[in-house]
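Q: What does the assembled structure look like for these inputs?
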Amino acid sequence: MLNYIIRRLFYAIPILIGVNLITFTLFFVVNTPDDMARMQLGIKRVTPDAIIKWKQERGYDKPLLFNEGEQGLAQLTRTIFFEKSVAMFAFRFGRADDGRDIAYEIKSRMMPSLAIALPVFVLGLGVYVVFALTMVFFRATYVDFWGVVLCVALMSISSLFYIIAGQFLISKLWHLVPISGYGQHMDVAKFLVLPVIIGVASSAGANTRWYRTLFLEEMGKDYVRTARAKGLAESIVLFRHVLRNALIPILTGAVVVIPLLFLGSLIAESFFGIPGLGSYTIDAINSQDFAVVRAMVFLGSLLYIVGLILTDISYTLVDPRIRLE
Amino acid sequence: MSTILQINNLETVLHTPAGPVWAVDGITLEISKGETFVLIGESGCGKSMTALSVMRLLPEVGEIVGGSVRLGGVDLLLQPEIAMRTIRGKRISMIFQEPMLSLNPVMTVAAQIGEVLKRHFNLGVAATQKRILEILNQVGIPDAARRMEEYPFQFSGGMKQRMMIAMALAGEPELLIADEPTTALDVTIQAQVLDLLRTLQQRDGMAILLITHDLGVAAEMAHKVAVMYAGEIVETANRAQFFQNPVHPYSRKLFASLPGKARRRQGLPLAVIRGNVPPLSSEFTGCRFAKRCDQAWGLCHDAAPGWVEVSAGHKVRCHLFSESAKLEAPAGWLEKGATDAPQESSTKSRLLSPNHLIHEACLLSVSALKVYFPIRKGLMKRVTGYVKAVDGVSLAIYRGKTLALVGESGCGKTTVGKGILQLIPPSAGSVQYKGIELVRLERDRLRKMRAEFQLIFQDPYSSLNPRMRIVDIIEEGMNALAAGQKEDVGIAGDGPAMAEMTKAARVDALLESVGLPPEAKWRYPHEFSGGQRQRIAIARALAVNPKLIICDEPTSALDVSVQAQILNLLKNLQNRLGLAYLFITHNISVVEYVADEVAVMYLGRIVERGSVDDILENARHPYTQALLSAVPVVEPESRRHVMPLHGDLPSPANPPRGCHFHPRCPHVMQVCRESYPGISIFNSTHTTRCYLYPQDASASGEAQAEVQAQA
Amino acid sequence: MSFKPVILWTDALVYLLVAGLFVFAWYVWRNEHLLVPWRRVAHSASGMSALTVLVFFISVGMLDTMHFRPAIENGGGGMGETAYSVEVLSLLDLVAAPLRTRVEKTYSAPFAAHLYAKETVELPDGGQVREFPRLKYGGAHLQDPETERMADVIRRSAAGAAMGLVIWGFAIVSLGILLGRGDGKGWRCALSAVFCGSTAVPWRAICITLALMLLFSGAALALCGYYHIFGTDKVGQDVFYQSLKGVRTGLVIGTLTTLMMLPFALLLGITAGYFRGWADDIIQYLYTTLSSIPGVLLIAAAVLMMQVYMETHPELFDTIAARADLRLLFLCLILGVTSWTGLCRLLRGEALKLREMEYIQAAHAFGVSHWRIITRHILPNVMHIVLISTVMDFSGLVLAEAVLSYVGVGVDPSMISFGTMINAARLEMAREPMVWWALLAAFTFMFALVLSANLFADAVQSAFDPRIRILSIKTGALRRKKSGGEPARTYSETP
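A:
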């Protein structure tokens, strides 16, 4: 088991290097730092001095891969590639355009992101499974039929609509909870209610339908017939046999995203004014703060890889057939 | 004897998208206490649906539309679902065909059995545990106390079926329904399971409704027999009556289509039932078997026959036996049926003396063939061991002869076939075809040789590409090998005429030679039945004029009547075209019918080989003996002595030290545990590897060296 | 009026796609076994109704795809060559010219005759008053909007709807004649079969959908010449027009994205699964790496970089439309890069399974070359996966476009799409009273498009995926129960 995890971590390194190369190419090779400076400073009225100053402030004034002006190892280390890309492996993300330390920002914004994403995740999982089980229990009846119709309809609505309509109805029309913002300590709860509800609702259609398909697929298996042949009641068959088998793909599918919960949700956070990583990313995209976007890309893939490893581990926990070697 | 289950006029419909299918159409039967009632029939005749209707566990598209099912006088069909649940698992239990799929993979064995106890008995925790252990011991699970907390995947197929039986027995049922309980198992394991069922029945006196397609299993188990055809029972009798004197033309044909030694001796082709089981969605007027019956006359097509009692307790549904209808029957009909004459002219008897074989030209010789699959483990995926699927197999196949390679599943026989054809690169050893070494031959040269040896597969459903027309499938090989221009084109023995044929004409001729109309070539595989597909697969292999065909279980997925058609075809082609076959199979009766020589394989090695008579009459190796004794036989008088084999096939990744067979061998000696035995020679063809017999000095030294080299 | 046809990059690809679809349809038509699953699609009521709606969207999208540059009439004219406008128009722009050109000053509500904001208006007598001024176009034909508007709207919409019904009637009769000729029973008989719902192809459902679509579009067409039926936006542009324009953007993103990456996914997925070994290792590494970057972030990074490139190289594009179009194409490409990995993984798995199939072993035994095995055996047997994933991805991509445009990494701001409409409208969310119509129009159009795409995808999936087919049987059972059991006694094992 431990051996396996070590091996998986070992495999993660080439993938992270690949991600790093992709981001490096995207940010520094497709466009030169000069181009970016020109873009940031405004195309029309840009002076060469301003570009040099812009690059110096951000440390983009070095050669990309090889610094001929230096000696020894410094020829490789005093380069954009080493200082901007390789440094990320040590979580040195550098500074954002507004001068703040990105690593510090990420640390302080993780918790608010998690405060929304985690309840959405947990509550969502529960709600979807319950809905799907209900539909399967009443399969081949109108409950099931209209349930599927509802799911398809819910799937077809844009997530933006859920947010806008939710904000309008609950906060603006009924004045139940604040429309946006974030508070301290216990206060947080009242700001979280709306985004969490909306978060759960917005992916209800697709997930419920998917889980229903999984359950139905399990229902068709032979062991279900065996269970019925034992004289078990339909609800016991459903909960003890079908649910346990269908939970394997559901849980392991869900585990992948657990680490990514730290990144929060881009849209919801910016709509509700929650100071999480999602809104941080959006702000960075809007202000074209490349350093932050680069850091987030790296962090995102790191978390995804952690998610993959967790998935493998969770398989061994829920499925007795799988042993990691 | 008191009646336990009484089924009256049961009708079950499956509502498929294509329309209703009358899977069970008016079945009536009665099962008494302590009795085994066997329902025999080919696939798709409604046997399983009958069982599921009794349990009221039909798939959701299924619906019982008429009749009654009485269990001890109570009509189950009128019970509410709640009441049904107290009956299922308690008074009627059921075991299914696929033990691998029928157990819940994520629950421990104890939990799954405990569930039944909890549902139907009021037992405490300790009592439940005790009872579970007791049941597991009853069904013969070794080390049950420890293994009951394991998951199904940790058990072998035979053990899983024992678990299923344990689960079914937990409720102490009055009636056990067993739906093809041994079809998925190897023959030695099948013998174990059948034996277990019989023992349990004798002890508890429960009734068993056994569903099977295997006449042999029926002969072993049955007290009473009913033959089912197209949703109906056509004949019902006691075992003795049925196996001594089956009367319905369908039953007779089933017997006649069984391959076996006797048929081969007489040089007779197997009887075939032409055509296929009619689709149950159609409306029937008259006898359902009439279209395929040699003895049918006008009345059979017009009126459905009623029940006729031919002797006490032996009833049949056939116009041949009804007094009123008999008068109308044309003279001579009955007599014709009674003799069951073969329709085709008999081919010459081909019993050859062993010496004769030596002089035949050796077509293919395999020596010390090894196919290892590496097992990778650890941080760098180092190779830590090998699955020795084939571990030093030597064979020789002669022109125009059939070598049967026999063994249980997992013994590596399919891998031998693929290794010979170089579809899997062998790890070591040599394969010589007409003296040319095939192992590590360059791809281009090998490709040119591929026309010489071809392959026929087990599963007719996955061996034809569903998206290609038959003509494209057959032409594929011709195009790839540019066959057809060679001088020795010998299909159908028509000589040079064949060589000038266009490709299209060749396809027609090929289809004709496997008994299909030329129009078939424009259609797609899904439009054909399993037997027809197997014919197409044979035509595809023949298209390149091979000299050797490796037949990998070509009939194991087919019903016995269709199997007969295919075996006849293969024999016929062998006689006409002089083909050599390597016939890979686990079915001994097929071996008896087709083989000239037999090689018995166990865990990657050949333990015994010889001519078919040597092996079948005079088997020397304990494994061969056990294998042969485990095959259920139809002949009622020859009650065989089953030589019990314990345990399962060990893993080829970690074969036992010494003789691979020693953990299961009844004659095991100390020396067997230490080193692999050398060759014992009985006559020029019959050899085995067993310490029970004097070792041949020259050969055994060689074998020792071989073993040393591997260690 | 003379014009110069313009074929933008996405136009070319759309034409290619349409041509490809025709060839595919022709090929399927020729091969009976390929036709079988499509027949199942054709027998699905929900799928065919959805297709009917999609046809409307697709025709709007196609009209909007044929681009040209109109000639500018230069005064005295006749001399020299004709100059062409820098503005690229489409056929849809031409058809909807009234909508496009009737620009108000700023916001106005649906069917309004007045602006949404008060303005200081100079009275003829010189005095000033703050009031809601009349719109230049919307409801301009009314004398007194307060009293006449309601009746006018009802009258015009009824006339439009009636027109729609007439067209529908023609369509129905011609359908009847067509069907009647097919089975030679005459059109009345065929029509009565259609209305009893006893035809194999669910013509009744299609007819009802068609009737609804024609009613609505008839009414909308009749009204949109006199009113802004969905109101106007900040710069006074008609929202109905914008919604129509948004359709093409959605369609292009939904289809081109998958199609652009399809060759890569097919090639790499099959190669990895079929050849195994080092090719498999490399390809797996490639897609694991790509899929480990969260999609939105990769898209954001790539689009930002593209933006920089386009800003710093303005000389590459001769018109705004060309620039916006290239950005759209690039967005498709980026979306494709993030979404091909899933398909690639599926195809790899399927190829792994297929290579062990016995017919492929048989082909090996004949010495058939790898290339032929891939093209003749593997490719035809994975096409259903490609098809299913293409139709299933479509709706997700349309929805993703809106989110991306909202985040600011979507289509060019000058290109009308549902995303840009929502993005522009949300800025006015806080306004009291709210400007809701642009949002509503965008969401409604998007919902209709995505819902019909989802329903159609469902029909395709259940027709092609053998695992999913159980579900359609289930609904069969439902129908049976509803129709009242024809068997005397019914037993069911489920409660």
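The interface with chain B takes residues 3, 6-7, 10, 139-140, 221-223, 225-233, 240-241, 244-245, 248, 318-321, 325 of chain A (CB under 8 Å).
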